[in-house]
Amino acid sequence: MAVVRKSGRGWQFLIRKKNYAPVYKTFISKAVATNWAQETELKIEQEIFQNLEEAGRTTLKEILLSYRDNVTTKKLGNNQETTKINKLMRQDIAKNNLARLSTLKISKFRDAWLGMSLHNV
Questions:
Q1: pLDDT grade, residue 1 (50/70/90)?
Q2: Which of 18, 59, 96 is nearest to 108 (CA)?
């Protein structure tokens, strides 16, 4: 069951379910908030809810940096992989947070990246 409380000029909803992290969200309209809470509770019960808050705060660049520093350093070909990761981190796509990455953005980037590679040969 969602807990609702007045928060400044809006309404804050908190949903707590067993085996799930608490989900908080604030809305201006109580009706919209109630609708969101009902839909979210239903998704949690059906086990299809995905909380994208962490993905919204994390950029692709941060993930690549962590991978480079924690995984690549232990590999045999780490120099080449580090160079490729560093080049990838300088691209505009790396500025996107993970929640905003889409298949379309990735495929456009891939096509542009392959186009750059073909011209550099």
A1: low
A2: 96
Q: Where are the domains of the chain?
A: 2-51, 55-120
The partner residues of 24 in beta bridges, in order of sequence, read 14
pLDDT in tens, 54-84: 677 889 999 999 999 999 999 998 999 999 9
Q: How far is CA 86 from each of CA 7, 48, 53, 81, 104, rounded to the nearest angstrom?
A: 43, 35, 26, 9, 23
Spatial strand order of the sheet with 2-7 comes to 2-7, 10-15, 23-27
DSSP 85-110: HHHHHTSGGGGSBGGG--HHHHHHHH
Measured distance CA(10)–CA(19) in Å, rounded: 28
How far, in Å, CA of 33 to CA of 26, rounded? 7
* 21-40 pLDDT tens trace: 778 788 888 888 888 888 88
